Amino acid sequence: MTSPTLTAPPGAPAASPRRRGIRAGGGMRVAPYVFLAPFMLSFVVFMILPIVVALYTSFFQVKRSGLGFGGDNDSVFVGFDNYVQAFANSAFMDSFGRVLLFGVVQVPIMLALSLLLALLFDSAVVKAKRFFQLAVFLPYAVPSVVAALIWGFLYQPRVSPIVEGLADLGVSVDFLGPGTVLWSIANVAVWSVTGVNMIILFSALQTVPREMYEAARLDGASEFRMAMQIKLPMIYPALMLTTLFSIIGTLQLFNEPMTMRSVTSNISGSYTPNMAIFSATTLGGNINLGSAMAIILGLATFVLSIVVSIMTNRKKGKA
Amino acid sequence: MMTQTLVTSPPPPVREARSRRTAQKAGSARPSVLAEGERPSRGARIAAWIFMGAITFYFLVPVYWLIVASTKSTAELFSTPGFVFSNFNLMENLVDLSTYNDGIFWRWMGNSMIYSGLGSIAMTFVCLISGYALAMYRFTGRTIVLGAVLGSMLIPQTVLAQPTYLLLVELGLNNTIWGILLPSLAYPFGVLLAFVFAQSAMPMELLEAARLDGASEWRAFFSIALKLLSPGGVTILLFAFIGSWNNFMLPLLVLSDARLQPVTVGLSGWSQASITIPGLQTLVVIGSLVSIIPIIVVFVSLQRYWKTGLAAGGVRF
């Protein structure tokens, strides 16, 4: 149907269709805007507008008791008061320190494991790849809330076969103690996201031209050297992407600790920044403070991702 | 005819086939210069097997425990070894799960299906048509839209949860289905994936040919592009589905009516309540298992789309 028009010599008969094209040009010019309208509308309403509302709300305080906010009569403009309050809130500030510590440990461990698995799957060393890949990837399909519920049981002394087994070996561990619960949450996060990071890195490895390996092999390079000097640099963009998203994810930590509050009292209501925002907004009833905290978290995330991008770009330049 | 030759199927897993072949070669111990990689030494292979065994154990054991625990009564959950089956109590547990609180669990499952199913289908359509527009047209404002899409990927959903909640209260949409469905339509990552897919799957010549045949822009998208973009669409759908099934903070803020909550919020509520009602723990266990079955079925059966999708999305950055 379409082939005759395309196979026709491009010279003579092109004139009349082109004129038709110009007449249809109105549709062509309008079409992209119509096509993009639903996305742009939802983008503006549900990504830009919420930020505007939160920003606006964060500069007000409800002076008289009541639940009004925003343009309500009870609201008074207070400038940066809520931000001062947020920064003076030691629980909120501590929560940042906590997720940063969490990220410094969890992100490198998780990424190293993902990378190691991706490299193994890309080499000839491991067999039954399909099965193993699925095993590693499967936890990603388990919602983080459910993952936290399952691990919550596995951390509880009365239920957990792991705690029991370790006790039989003479090792007594408290996965839910004040000092350990953060790492127990980190374990849930590693369990959940290693698979998807492994797949991203593995997919990147698969796009490296095979000829490069053959050339290196002829030059007598070992598998390990090839991994370090060819594979790693080639998948650098994917590695940077996973690092960036992992760090962003760390700052947003919410589902796992929130869910695990039901198995331990060592997770406070403002354990992570997002939990602090949540409790200020709901239990605290202070929507204005909650908004200021949300804006601070958003800015912190933004700044951190810029810093990470700059740092990784510089490293790449050196390499 | 033209369309047939131009249809691009998802890239065949060439590499995998090749490595499998070479693996066989290595197994048959025939020395081959062309084999990919030298034959790994016996030590390396044994170490790899042990390592992979440990890894598989780590990733699968929680799910195995969940299956075992789902078949136990509350008393057995606390008294019998966790990794060993005891009396098979699965049916009783399922009945308890279905009848507790007038069967609210299935209501939650239904809600999750609506939020994730309907929501991600609508979102996928929005992403595909937007990505297509960005890939196929040059128009004023295109770079601004692309920049906004890229930039907003750095804004995580949870940072927006509290602000979105404020907005929904303003709009009077809190505690409604729309309060969960509408915000999910804005999914910049999906638009970006669709943009990348459209660039490789839909040749410009095809659109021009359709125009020459008198098809409207609208029709060119619906009867030609949508078909070509469908493999990419499945990938976006999967991402969107998993993402929204995982959605927790926004529904927790927005939905106070238990009958509107998705299953994640409901189960976490039960877990919270089980501190005072110990019998609920069995329901949390069996409920967790039931809630992940549909998502795992979808996930495993559409596995190949993940790889193509992530490859396309991840490599281009």
Q: Reading side by side through the largest sheet of chain A, how are the strands ordered?
A: 1-2
Q: Tell me which oligomeric state these chains represent.
A: heterodimer
CATH topology of the largest domain in chain A: MetI-like fold
What's the N-to-C terminus distance of chain B? 35 Å
Amount of beta strand of chain A: under 5%
CATH architecture of the largest domain in chain A: Orthogonal Bundle
The CATH architecture term of the largest domain in chain B is Orthogonal Bundle
Number of separate strands of chain A: 2
Low-confidence stretches of chain B: 1-37
Mean pLDDT of chain B: 82
Name the helix and strand elements of chain B from N-terminus to C-terminus, one letter apiece.
HHHHHHHHHHHHHHHHH
Helix segment count of chain A?
15
Content-based structural category of chain A = mainly alpha
Radius of gyration of chain B: 25 Å
CATH superfamily of the largest domain in chain B: MetI-like
Helix content of chain A: over 70%
Percent in helix of chain B: over 70%
Structural class of chain B: mainly alpha
Number of separate structural domains of chain A: 2
Q: Largest sheet of chain A, described in full?
A: 2 strands, antiparallel
What's the domain count of chain B?
2
